[in-house]
């Protein structure tokens, strides 16, 4: 189910992906949820695995026009930034990363510092700001060095999360 889910967010040119995304109304590249009231058994199974998929996907930043600044997982090993903002209800969650870059092409650090702790801001500054001619933002599987999903990496991820060592006697 993870492999099907990964294909739904990375293989937009595949006909079967286009059909399923249209049938179930997936407009965003990485929606929060894909559960629908009336759907097939296979779709329910993919939807059940969706939170696990989402937690292991990270954005590879390109032109920064797709990724939502506060809700997207784009700062490595941190998850969405809105979880680091106390009382994050005031944040415009649809703000894209390119909107957080100043006119001269640097990060708008004043705004980040207003909302985030300095240690989080330092993580952001380690990422290069907007590159005008960069390719599009891409979703990557965080469990491989290449960013490409593999069943093997998913297996080891599941094994790691569910395995509990025996206590020594």
Detailed description of the structure:
This protein is 36% helix and 5% strand. It is globular, with a radius of gyration of 18 Å. It folds into two domains: 55 residues, no CATH class; 90 residues, no CATH class. The chain has 169 residues and is mainly alpha-helical. It has six helices and two strands, in the order αααβααβα. Helix 1 crosses helix 3. The protein has a two-stranded antiparallel ribbon with strand order 1-2. This is Reverse transcriptase zinc-binding domain-containing protein.
Number of helices: 6
Q: Roughly what is the average pLDDT, rounded to an integer? A: 89
Report the count of strand segments: 2
Estimate nothing, just give the exact number of structural domains.
2
Strand order of the largest sheet: 1-2
Strand content: under 5%
Task: Give me the strand/helix succession.
Answer: HHHEHHEH
- Sketch the major β-sheet: 2 strands, antiparallel
Helix percent reads 25-40%
- Low-confidence sequence ranges: none
Structural category: mainly alpha
Shape type: globular
Radius of gyration from the alpha-carbon trace, in angstroms:
18 Å
How far apart are the termini?
A: 39 Å
């Amino acid at each position: 189910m993870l492999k099907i889910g990964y294909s739904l967010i990375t293989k937009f040119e595949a006909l079967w992906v286009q059909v399923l995304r249209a049938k179930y109304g997936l407009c965003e590249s990485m929606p929060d949820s894909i559960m629908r009231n009336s759907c097939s058994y296979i779709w329910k199974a993919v939807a059940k695995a969706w939170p696990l998929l989402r937690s292991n996907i990270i954005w590879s930043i390109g032109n920064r026009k797709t990724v939502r600044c506060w809700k997207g997982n784009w700062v490595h090993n941190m998850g969405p930034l809105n979880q680091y903002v106390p009382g994050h209800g005031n944040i415009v969650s649809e703000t894209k990363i390119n909107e957080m870059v100043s006119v001269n092409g640097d990060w708008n650090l004043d705004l980040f510092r207003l909302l985030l702790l300095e240690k989080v801001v330092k993580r952001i500054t380690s990422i290069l700001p907007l590159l005008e001619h960069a390719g599009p933002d891409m979703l990557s599987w965080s469990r491989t060095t290449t960013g490409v999903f593999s069943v093997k990496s998913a297996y080891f991820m599941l094994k790691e999360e569910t395995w509990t060592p025996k206590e020594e006697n």
